[in-house]
Amino acid sequence: MSSLELWRERGAALGPRAAKRSRESLQRRTQRLRSRFFFIVQCALAAAFAWWAARVVLHHPTPFFAPVTAMICLGLTFGQRLRRVVEVTAGVAIGVFIGDVFVHFFGSGVWQIAVVVITAMSAAVLLGAGLLIVTQAGVQSVVVMTLLAQPGAAFSRWLDAVLGGAIALLAATIAPAAPLRRPRQQAAKVVTEIALILGETALALRDNNSELAGATLERARRSESALDELRSLSAEGIAVVRLSPFRRRHLPAVQAIADLLEPLDRAIRNVRVLVRRAAVAVWRTEEVPPAYIDLIEELGTVTQRISDELEARRMPEGARADLSRLGRASAQVAPHPTLSAEVIRAQVRSTVVDLLMLTGLTYAEARARVPVSVDALEDDFVESEH
């Protein structure tokens, strides 16, 4: 094939790939907008209400700082919202107050801007403020001195800032139900991913399929991102129920999902080690006893059942019996096993313990259901992952 034909072939293939990437990018951006649309609408309504309240209640003709403070306070996340409301309101209030005082007595100019920024930020630091308050104090004092320099409006803009913060605090107590559902849905997704990885690993070992073993190993390495998303969603869900009095009753359910993070993290790590050793066994054509492969396959089936229970908003207590049975079966050591085979068996045992903890057992209770191996080999040899 000539170079020209090769470039033509590459160019022809580039179009579909580019179109696919564009569609995937659009889907991600659309999903991101969908997940943040509530925050956007909430900020818009809070800003509009803050403007209206400042105009009608305080009779301020141009209450710029009321809607601005409300929007900055609310932001686009639930995490640490109450703290953000307090800090931003304090920072804006300090900056606006000091800026107004300087405009009222000294007017606006070059030296006034320098002095007011130093004064506002220093005052925030002396009050023991965090970085957010100090920054907002400096920024808002500059806004007052430059864009809104009105000597006759002293103190009115400070009231606007406080009003905006108060409205943001009220709006922050209103939260949708989605952040309470998503952690459980994501937890089920993570467990499903573990189940699929185990199933593919068993198939790769049974068929001695090196290509599938490599692909499964890559999939196992990517599984950490799903767990990271679960951590983020869980933290957001807890923030919602702690902040909103209307969602406080959901705290036990949200906390129960948060408690799954530690055993899930360990399960993913153990499964990654298992998959990597299975891939090594396939590449080196090392024998893995059929009984060990059956353990992996059955563990994948039980893991999927756990995911189904989580998706149905139930604690997967029904999987304990099958996991306990697998734990007992994993104690049987095959005659003359290879190193890879024993690493795989050990990782199955460790994963069984992790999954038993997902059903609500403590570590000691879960460990008691995985008996010591009947062979003289050291129990639970685990290869560390780097």
UniProtKB/TrEMBL annotation:
Topology in the lipid bilayer: Multi-pass membrane protein
The keyword Repeat is assigned to this record: no
Segments forming domain Integral membrane bound transporter: 50-171
Any Gene Ontology CC annotation: membrane
Keyword Oxidoreductase: no
Subcellular location field: Membrane
Sorted UniProt keywords: Membrane, Transmembrane, Transmembrane helix
Transmembrane annotation, as ranges: 37-54, 60-78, 85-107, 113-137, 158-178
Name used for this protein in its record: Uncharacterized membrane protein YgaE (UPF0421/DUF939 family)
InterPro entries found in the cross-reference section: Memb_transporter_dom
Chief location: membrane
